[in-house]
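Chain A, query sequence.
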Amino acid sequence: MATDTLTEADRDALAALLDGPADASALASRTDSVPDDLAERLAFFEDNGLVRERDDGRFELTDSGRRIVLAPGDGSADDDIDLPDRVRRTLAALGLRADLLDAVRHAFAFLAYWGEATAAELREGVYTEAPSGYGSPDEWWRDGVRGALAALPDIEPPSEDGGLWRYSGDPERADPAAEGWKMLDRTAAHEPYTSLTHVLTDESVTGNERSAVVAAFERLRERGEADDDEIREAAGRVEGPDDAWLNRELPDLLAAVPFVSRTSDGRWSYVSMRERARVGFDPADA
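Chain A, predicted structure.
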């Protein structure tokens, strides 16, 4: 009967996939395992988001699988995000697959560090850290993270769409330093900010002005490029900010967000998460 936890043999099999994609027979030649046993374990790995099956029938590691393989074997990195015990218990009871569990832990840690964030900020700030097999940040949030995050202790979901998700527990219980949310320089222009939330928090943007920046960012994220009129129109849908703020403050705030820039013809541009993945962007190398 298959075990539902990772054994040393499982870790060896996952590590063997670092040498490249393989089916059960090829993987058996790299390890001491029997092909039939490996076929069963590969199905388990896939169900838990550690590997994915390619069109050619071979399996390759996912980001979550690679993290498990490269983590120290002494358990020191098993939970580098410091979660309260009650949160760990709730996560265990939810029975999430391994890669989605990783995403929810990152989302919790993000909120525990910053205190509050909109759904758009969570998608922008956390998705690339733990995409968990979802093809877009919207799918990641809608079909994976949102419901599980709302079920966790110390997390207060907003009462309406677009509102702030809040963390009500002990401040900075999670340790996001390893994730680089505040300290890593991620942009080619060496912008000091690492996420939309970092910008809004550091610049003390609150209330309707925060909602306006988020609305402008979401318009740009969805389209990839936009002109000033489109940005102002999106932000102007939020009641409160006046024309002077939209013309003077909004551009400065939006320009500070990582991967947002001006094109040569003066339009706004955003490098999507999919495009960053296509070109092999690695936050640690930024």
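The chain is about 50% helix and 10% strand. Confidence is low (pLDDT under 50) at residues 72-80, 173-191, 280-286.
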